[in-house]
Write a structure and sequence with these properties.
Helix content: 25-40%
Low-confidence stretches: 3-12
Strand content: 15-25%
CATH architecture of the largest domain: Alpha-Beta Complex
Structural class: alpha/beta
Distance between the termini: 13 Å
Largest sheet: 7 strands, mixed
CATH topology of the largest domain: Quinone Oxidoreductase, Chain A, domain 1
Radius of gyration: 20 Å
């Protein structure tokens, strides 16, 4: 298993293989055997950047699919040998926060982002999933495990960006970042009826994939100058209806506000791995009265959401293979895939390790 140690101030960290005992399977839980695993930029934040909190001997990883090995005595909908998607976010569904529509924060802010945060992640041969009936979803044989692994985080997080921005029919939308999250945000916005696509990115392979997912309008290269100025030139100074943020840093909200029309919305799912404060421009935010809304949330988990997204793939409305640029075979290739995600060569969108 890949394990990281992070000590206060990030003064010491290690990544190594380790053997650990399987977790006990509670009455509502499941144990799952890995079938396909995907390193994420969030794993890079955890090891090398300013992640929240300390990690001590925790297994990395929160994206993957697997085969059920064992279920608890009260689990009704799953059994051994079922192939399942494991969402990156696994809420406690019987909490008051869940009843209030914030299941992903049940027990406290971000607490349902458990894997490699509060408990061992999925980069193990066997891993533990709480509340199996609500936090697992079956996927059909027609979806290959590598593609199904994209449904654990890439797709639900990305589509949530478009949901947060409230993309509607005929909207002009700017997407900031077209890595794997941004690409799926483009796909989600296209399905929701966006008309004009202003897409911020520079990597040729990502640009090509973005066009395949619907970004047929202008591509904005941040290397060619201020992206706000480029957006304003392309819209004749009229701004955009919505902004979806899937990349950038603490200054990106500033840029999004400057290019957004009053009364409209920003959807952000970008993990800010460094910096102490997010910048909001006073004047462009109407001195606090602009009706420019910033919606920033953790991806909702849940079986229902995963099953609906899998249905889109099964009927051909969503194709996931363009996301996967690097495929590895064998559990021992996880470290290589993780470092590839850290280095981010120009041709990389997403690596997957097939077990």
């Amino acid at each position: 298993m890949i394990v990281t140690k992070i000590f206060k101030g990030l003064t010491m960290l290690k990544i190594r293989w380790i053997e650990k005992k399987w977790s006990m399977c509670g009455p509502l839980d499941a144990l799952v055997k890995s079938r396909a695993l995907a390193p994420c930029t969030s794993d890079i934040h955890t090891v090398w950047e300013g992640t929240i909190g300390e990690r001590h001997n925790l297994v990395l990883g929160h994206e993957g699919v697997g085969e059920v090995v064992e279920v608890g005595s009260m689990v009704k909908n799953f059994k051994p040998r079922d192939q399942v998607i494991i969402p990156a976010i696994t809420p406690d569904w019987n909490t008051v926060e869940a009843q209030g529509g914030l299941a992903m924060h049940s027990g406290g802010m971000l607490t349902c982002w458990r894997f490699s945060f509060f408990k061992d992640g999925v980069f193990g041969e066997i891993f533990h999933v709480t509340d199996a009936d609500d936090n697992l979803a079956k996927f059909p044989d027609s979806i290959a495990p590598a593609e199904a692994a994209m449904l654990s985080d890439r797709v639900p997080t990305s589509f949530h960006t478009a949901e947060l921005a409230d993309v509607k029919l005929g909207d002009t939308v700017c997407w900031i970042g077209i890595g794997p999250v941004g690409l799926m945000a483009v796909a989600g916005s296209n399905l929701m009826g966006a008309l004009h696509f202003l897409t911020v990115g520079s990597r040729p392979d990502s640009v090509h994939a973005a066009k395949g997912y619907g970004a047929t309008d202008d591509i904005i290269n941040y290397k060619n100058g201020d992206i706000v100025e480029q957006v304003m030139n392309l819209t004749d100074g009229k701004c955009v209806d919505k902004v979806c943020i899937a990349g950038g840093d603490v200054k990106t909200i500033d840029q999004a506000i400057r290019m957004l029309k009053p009364g409209e919305k920003i959807g952000n799912v970008n993990y800010l791995g460094s910096g102490d404060y997010v910048i909001v421009p006073r004047v462009e935010w109407g001195c606090g009265m602009s009706h420019k809304f910033i919606h920033s949330r953790l991806m909702p988990g849940g079986r229902l959401r995963m099953e609906k997204l899998a249905n889109l793939v099964e009927v051909g409305k969503l194709k996931l293979s363009p996301l996967i640029t690097h495929r590895f075979n064998g559990f021992d290739k996880l470290k290589e895939a993780l470092f590839l995600m850290k280095e981010k060569p120009a041709a990389l969108i997403k690596p997957v390790v097939i077990i």
